[in-house]
């Protein structure tokens, strides 16, 4: 396109090994497994609200400031979640990943490989707080709570310890056309970074086609340019404590936003065990109710929101400082908010 274009993009994307997710059925957006999310701006209703030209309503509370200078509260997507049945390697040395990456059309394989490549530096920069090899923990918890009469205290300690030993991003190898492990029984999920990665790729393609003012929502949000009125894009932020209510809005331009929260996919009825895992312990993240990250790109926002979900306050500040131009809003279990800025 040669002319200046404006659009709000809400589509679903998938790659081999990941399920297709249509997260925006109007008038509300929900995960299939009980997650809750806010709708994007530009005609998409926030959670529980009416559709409008931007967001249906604004609520005050616990905002942080865009590092570029744009003030506002914030918005996020629901929790990223590993998909059951992720790839698994069977050997003891470097083993090819047989599921997902080794099948399907070349283009989706290339995109999935790109997300895998981005996952390694993200894991290193967060000291493993973000780790794409947590898939064995997903399989353990999902299997445990799927059984009738499952112990509400969680999997046995010995079984948990065995699964935890399979989690180590340093044993993940991403090579051209190949993803492999240096360990038997390891498995990978890219759902802590893939939505952000796909959002960035789509955003870049749209910009290359001449679309200069676009709001892209593929489970993560990225804003190119501004709203057609000339102001920043406004995106509604779901309240993690109250279903159907927005905690506020985030006004963004040339920025990306992602939110992680265990409330999106609980394994047990009490919600004590969720899809967000601490790679260091194998336990479920319980430090924060929700974590929203604002970053220059959606891939960074996605991975960092996952990492901060398992980080205590002091560590969260240290990790955030490693990512220039980022800010975070961390919601405590009691509903209070900690705002951090790199």
The number of helical elements comes to 6
CATH architecture call of the largest domain = Roll
Tell me the distance between the termini: 37 Å
The CATH superfamily of the largest domain is ApbE-like domains
User: How would you classify the helix and strand content by structural class?
Assistant: alpha+beta
Sheet with most strands: strand arrangement:
1-5-6-9-10-11-12
Biggest sheet, in brief?
7 strands, mixed
The residue-averaged pLDDT reads 74
What's the number of extended β-strand segments? 12
User: What is the gyration radius calculated from CA atoms?
Assistant: 19 Å
Shape: globular
Classified by CATH, the class of the largest domain is Alpha Beta
- Which percent range describes the beta-strand content? 15-25%
* Low-pLDDT segments, ≥5 res: 1-109
Total count of domains: 2
Percent in helix? 10-25%
Enter the CATH topology name of the largest domain: T-fold
Topology as a string of helices (H) and strands (E) = EEHHHEEHEEEEEEHHEE
């Amino acid at each position: 396109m040669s002319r200046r274009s404006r659009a709000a993009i809400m589509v679903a994307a998938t790659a081999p090994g990941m399920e297709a997710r249509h997260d925006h059925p109007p008038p509300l957006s929900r995960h299939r497994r009980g997650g809750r999310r806010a709708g994007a701006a530009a005609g998409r209703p926030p959670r529980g609200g009416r559709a409008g030209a931007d967001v249906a309503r604004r609520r005050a509370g616990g905002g942080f400031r865009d590092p570029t200078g744009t003030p506002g509260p914030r918005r996020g997507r629901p929790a990223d979640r590993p998909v059951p049945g992720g790839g698994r390697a069977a050997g003891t040395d470097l083993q090819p990943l047989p599921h997902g990456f080794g099948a399907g059309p070349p283009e989706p394989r290339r995109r999935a490989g790109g997300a895998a490549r981005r996952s390694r530096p993200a894991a290193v920069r967060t000291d493993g707080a973000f780790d794409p090899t947590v898939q064995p923990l997903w399989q353990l918890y999902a299997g445990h709570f799927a059984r009738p009469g499952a112990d509400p205290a969680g999997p046995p300690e010995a079984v948990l310890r065995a699964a935890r030993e399979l989690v180590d991003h340093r044993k993940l190898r991403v090579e051209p056309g190949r993803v492999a492990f240096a360990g038997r029984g390891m498995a990978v999920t890219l759902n802590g970074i893939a939505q952000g990665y796909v959002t960035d790729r789509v955003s870049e393609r749209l910009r290359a086609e001449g679309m200069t003012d676009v709001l892209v929502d593929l489970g993560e949000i990225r804003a190119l340019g501004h709203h057609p009125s000339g102001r920043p894009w406004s995106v509604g932020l779901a309240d993690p404590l109250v279903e159907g209510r927005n905690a506020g809005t985030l006004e963004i331009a040339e920025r990306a936003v992602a939110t992680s929260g265990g409330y999106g996919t609980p394994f047990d009825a009490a919600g004590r065990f969720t899809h967000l895992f601490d790679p260091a312990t194998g336990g479920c993240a319980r430090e924060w109710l929700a974590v929203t990250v604002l970053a220059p790109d959606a891939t960074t926002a996605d991975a960092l929101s996952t990492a901060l979900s398992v980080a205590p306050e002091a560590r969260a500040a240290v990790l955030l400082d490693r990512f220039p131009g980022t800010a975070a809003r961390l919601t405590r279990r009691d509903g209070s908010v900690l705002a951090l800025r790199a």
